[in-house]
Batch of 2 targets.
Target 1
Amino acid sequence: MPVRSRSLSRVESFFGNSLDQQEIICSNNLLHSRMPNIKVFSGTSHPDLAQRIVDRLGIDLGKVVTKKFSNLETCVEIGESVRGEDVYIVQSGSGEINDNLMELLIMINACKIASASRVTAVIPCFPYARQDKKDKLQGGEDGSDNMKFAKKNHDWKFRSRAPISAKLVANMLSVAGADHIITMDLHASQIQGFFDIPVDNLYAEPAVLKWIKENIPEWKNSIIVSPDAGGAKRVTSIADRLNVEFALIHKERKKANEVASMVLVGDVKDKIAILVDDMADTCGTIVHAADRLVEAGALKVYAILTHGIFSGPAISRINNACFEAVVVTNTIPQDGHMRDCPKIQCIDVSMMFAEAVRRTHNGESVSYLFSNVPY
């Protein structure tokens, strides 16, 4: 990377082949004068993505040793100087989420107290993002916390004592010393407001559009479908850019956790249905939605998800479902899931994070990434 004495080939890989040698040297000098040096470290949650990011940037991954004591306390040792450096720590909210979150907090604090100039947490999948508001259904009319009583009497009220855990995570990151957050497709955009530091929420939409055009030959005869009403804004944006129609599925519930029926709003007959959502965990909703689309006359059904969590019975459900393909990004490691389920395909978004890091380091705008994929 141009912040150090690197070979010309590595500088070219950073700035792209469109720059000639003189422009690269000028950009190199400008970067030296404007910004401190850069270090990128990886946590243990997704080292493959971190390696792809630094390969794209043309630099080496920073040295860090992470281990656990016998009582399972996390210990992190940063293996090189970060004094005056612009530090980026890549750690996704996947796998052992609590351990990985604690590891991220310790790494941020370790860099901060080692006099790093700025510490940016690159969190491709933000942990606890689904706990962003107090709307859990709890208790009965008499104020009882007995969930069975409430279910039996169909007596559910929005009188929550649930936490807003996403706000707690935001506070923890800030207190640990994070100066900036880079993430992708937050479950709820208002989570950005939980922070008093800058948050760049990247979108997978440009990469999704590129995948659709390159991998679905009949995409002009497609319809973009949201599996629930909450994703309507997301699917309308994609449908508008593809110039196709959109639909959504409304879930009717007789009682909590039990979907009585799914009402399809829109005409999918003789069309390629593309289900789009930000994440899938146990995959119950998208599998039911796919069945409903086939019943309504859809020729094929694809599912495109930003964060493929795939916990519990998710993989077996996908294997038994009518999907042509279930497409996810690599914000969460997918190698194991792809081995167990041949229907799962992966979109690499490392170039988007690498470009976000580069632009942040150079003091440039990242809004270009909201509608374009950096090649």
Target 2
Amino acid sequence: MAKLWIALMFLLISFPLQESSAQEIVNITILHNAVKEGAVCLDGSPPAYYLRRRNSPNWLLFLRGGGVCYGDSKERSCLSRSTSELGSSQQMSEQISLNFGIFSISKKNNPDFWNWNHVVITYCDGGSYLGDVEKPVQVFDTETNKTRYLYYRGRKIWNYTIRNLLQKGMKHANQVLLSGCSVGATATAVYCNDFKQLLPHATVKCLMDGGLFVNLPDITGNYSLQSIFDITVREHNITLGIERNYVPTNAAYKQLFPPYILPSIKQPMFLLNSAYDTWQIRNILLYPTAEWRPCVLNSSSCHPRQLQILQGFRSSFLTNISPAFEKEKWGFFINSCFHHCQGDVSTVRVNNQTILEAIGNWMYERQKKVILVDFLSWPNNPTCVTYFEDTWL
């Protein structure tokens, strides 16, 4: 009898752990029927997402990031991408482990979103979910000596995916948070207003994580990011559904910069970003030069001029986004760590609030205004735990 009791107790203790572990693993959903509507990845394969259903009327959607591709006549970046998970659902993982940050299934660690329906929308179009080129693009593959066809269909992928999720039950949602990382955050901002129109009876809010790209010169004086966005907009035929007076017709690249996107957003928005955005400092401001390696790995190694350049980027970044601080029902968490997307970061604090606490307070309106801006310059916030990896050069 004693042995039976011990066995029963073991089952009672271990079952929740097994269930929790099983809930971390989320299977891919491939949208095969999307191909009929032309909603396809770069290589022509169907788009996909990862959905974890919970017994909840609330939905959290996340648009993955991964940069943009362009210039196939020269750099052939989209061709290379089309054979990876960033351009083909055939290369995507059948399962992912989803139990971190805002996707944590721990009520203790993620009290506001742990039991929501979680959706991770994969990124495979190379154009920030915004491309709209009807005719396939022909590219000659020198490795195989064959002509390949690429598809810039981000907008169709977005439309089909959202319709599919509405059919899966999202149309009955009470609360929905649309979020995204990097270029996924850009798409979040662009689609935020239209997304609300599809859910007229739900509370809809949007979150940009690491998507506040600023049009600043690099250390050589060139506007590199402006050039990247200009080519991307033209090659992917990106025409945004934002109010025309915010974007001059002779400067299409501005469509992807926050000062021209944010004013048109009518829904509540949360801006999560570092004032020292890793991707922008690394790829746009500095370029990977050996001169900067000691500085970004150890602030005590920075020369005064280097610190001045970094602090100048922070000041310009805050100036670029400052008009958004006046928006009603918007939330902000702008810290001074070397980070890009931070949805999985749990330790960083600003004014003694973590990222998840700030998002929850804003989502549930527990605070009248959530504006958390780190007035400590890098590297003076002790809660920052990661900087550049030593492999950045």
